[in-house]
Design a protein that fits this description.
The structure holds two protein chains of two kinds. The longest helix of chain A is centred in the middle third of the chain and has 14 residues. In chain A, strands 2-1-3-4-5 form a five-stranded parallel sheet, sandwiched between helices. By secondary structure, chain A is of the alpha/beta class. The two termini of chain A are about 20 Å apart. Chain A has five helices and five strands, in the order βαβαβαβαβα. Helix content of chain A is about 40%, strand content about 20%. Chain B is of the alpha/beta class. Chain B has twelve helices and ten strands. In chain B, α2 crosses α3 and α2 packs antiparallel against α5. Chain B is globular, with a radius of gyration of 24 Å. The chains are: A alpha/beta, B alpha/beta. The complex binds cobalamin, guanosine-5'-triphosphate and magnesium ion. Cobalamin binds next to α1, β3, β4 and α5 of chain A.
């Protein structure tokens, strides 16, 4: 029997083109032995939830540098739940002001990371979250 | 309700979860595959292979759109990307080119990592296709890793294999290996908007011509004459060459026609059944092997096996004699004198 692989969807919702962070994180997770599905830029919450379902991922990682996180995150959480994927853990990275963090955590976001975040921490947290 | 039943009823979450089980080769998945087996054998499996970056994913996207619009058939896509040999991880990026398909519940895209398999697909890709087949996806498109090697595994699995080339990626005949013709049912020159299409097509035609001569040259009164070669085998299928521009959706209808013609050819010639038989046959052989081995090791004491192995190591027994004696269960004779 093959060992169970951690499957992660890394997506960029919103309209900005900042994709470096998403790619850095995708590669780091791959190098940590995970299978990362990368969906590219300008994903709507619906597209993200649909991909998460088809790919049966354990984790959804959102990279948001546009400032639209307070609109996008709850919508994506809601759609995941509606699809029966309430066990999927959601992480966010990008430009997230400190004052938004408590509310995001409250919604159920598993981890939040800003510029300069260490990929080792991200890997550790993702592994911890799917245990 | 069981997972299989939910899958048969069209529950997409159940389908996604079963695919994971199958990919992990879990004991539950074996039960499920057995339950689903009677519902399989209805889909057309289309393989898409070719060197990295030739536009396979973009083509798959267009083909799926075509089948949805014109035939209203449910389409499943299995997109395989390589696993890192060092970490076992993978970045699966084919979905980036398939965004047009989102929001359509008649399409299901699943990305897979090759997980150490070298043939362009993973070991469980065939089983994943079986699940989609049972779940009523009439068209199943499988995009391979795209190592640029002749990927025989996909040709064995798919009914119709498309080999995708692009201008500029080695237009010379040298680069277009005859090997691809063993697996290609349809040749696609994608990126036909790029310069050099003519060269690529000429190179492909030359390679094709070598494999399937359509004309014959002979000497007549000292002059070379060209005549049409006799069609010796009515079952013969010569891979058509299709030009496409996947990013603009050009040439897709024609490509779909080639694919349909190939399916028709397989059905008429009996090759459809023959391929099915070959595929199921090798699946059965693999299982037989696995089961017989397991049964054998259950029936024999570990010490006995080691004992015989030792004799082989000392050149007292050939492997052939060793197997014979192990299967007979007798003590091994032939001592060193
Ligand atoms: C490089 C850059 C660009 C490049 C982007 C190139 C590209 N392809 O990515 C270019 C020049 C194109 C650009 C353009 C713009 N940019 Co700009 N850009 C930056 C800059 C300087 C660095 C971003 C970056 O790549 N960092 C490197 C990566 C590796 O870091 P990261 O993305 O932060 O990712 C890390 C973490 O955030 C986290 N992470 C990120 N994603 C994820 C995902 C998951 C799942 C996890 C777990 C973690 C995680 O981990 C990563 C590793 O540490 C930032 C400023 C800054 N210091 O962040 C501004 C910045 C993001 N840009 C900004 C703006 C406003 C713009 C423009 C609108 C400017 C304009 N007026 O034209 C345009 C928008 C263009 C567009 N189409 O969207 C603002 C955003 C403001 C805001 N959100 O409130 C910033 C913050 C600058 C600023 N201080 O004003 N930009
Ligand atoms: N000009 C042009 N570009 C194309 C065409 N088809 C695909 N592309 C581009 O070629 C690049 C690679 O396309 P993909 O569809 O990802 O190719 P692929 O063969 O799936 O790539 P891998 O999966 O990485 O092997 C992308 O930038 C596409 O936009 C085409 O017909 N014409
Ligand atoms: Mg691809």
């Amino acid at each position: 029997m093959t060992e169970k692989k951690i499957r992660v969807l890394v997506a960029k919702p919103g309209l900005d083109g900042h994709d470096r962070g998403a790619k850095v994180v995708a590669r780091a997770l791959r190098d940590a032995g995970m299978e990362v599905i990368y969906t590219g830029l300008r994903q709507t919450p619906e597209m993200i939830a649909e991909a998460a379902l088809q790919e049966d991922v354990d984790v959804v990682g959102l990279s948001i540098l546009s400032g639209a996180h307070m609109a996008l995150a709850p919508r994506i959480l809601e759609l995941l739940k509606a699809n029966g994927q309430d066990k999927v853990r959601v992480f966010i990275g990008g430009i997230i002001p400190d004052e938004d963090m408590p509310r995001l955590k409250e919604m159920g976001i598993a981890g939040i990371y800003g510029p300069g975040a260490s990929t080792e921490d991200i890997i550790k947290d993702v592994r911890e979250a799917v245990k | 309700m069981s997972l299989t039943q939910a899958v048969l009823e069209g529950n997409r979450l159940a389908l996604a979860r079963l695919l994971t089980q199958v990919e992990n080769n879990s004991p539950e998945s074996r039960v499920a595959l057995t339950e689903l087996f009677p519902y399989t054998g209805r889909s057309h499996l289309i393989g898409v292979t070719g060197a990295p970056g030739t536009g396979k994913s973009s083509l798959v996207n267009q083909l799926a759109l075509y089948y949805r619009k014109n035939h209203d058939r449910k389409v499943a896509i299995i997109a395989v990307d390589p696993s890192s040999p060092f970490t076992g991880g993978a970045v699966l990026g084919d979905r980036v080119r398939m965004r047009d398909l989102s929001g359509d519940s008649g399409v299901f895209i699943r990305s897979m990592a090759s997980r150490g398999s070298l043939g362009g697909i993973s070991q469980t890709t065939a089983a994943i296709a079986q699940v989609f087949d049972a779940a009523g996806y009439e068209i199943i498109i499988i995009e391979t890793v795209g190592a640029g090697q002749s990927e025989v595994d996909i040709a064995r699995l798919a009914h119709t294999t498309l080999v995708v080339e692009a201008p500029g990626l080695g237009d010379d005949i040298q680069a277009i290996k005859a090997g691809i013709l063993e697996i290609a049912d349809v040749l696609v020159i994608n990126k036909a908007d790029h310069p050099g299409v003519e060269n690529t097509e000429r190179a492909l035609r030359t390679t094709l011509e070598l494999a399937h001569p359509t004309t014959r040259v002979f000497r007549h009164h000292g002059q070379a004459m060209t005549v049409a070669a006799p069609v010796t085998d009515s079952k013969l299928w010569i891979p058509p060459i299709n030009r496409t521009v996947a990013t603009e959706g050009k040439g897709i209808t024609e490509l779909a026609v080639s694919i349909a013609k190939h399916a028709e050819h397989l059905r008429q010639s009996g090759d459809w059944t023959a391929r099915d038989r070959a595929r199921l046959g090798s699946e059965m052989e693999a299982l037989l092997q696995e089961t017989l081995m397991a049964r054998f090791f259950e029936s024999i004491r570990q010490e006995k096996y080691e004992e015989v192995m030792e004799k082989v190591l000392n050149r007292d027994l050939s492997p052939y004699e060793a197997v014979k004696s192990l299967l007979n269960g007798r003590e091994t004779g032939k001592e060193k004198s």
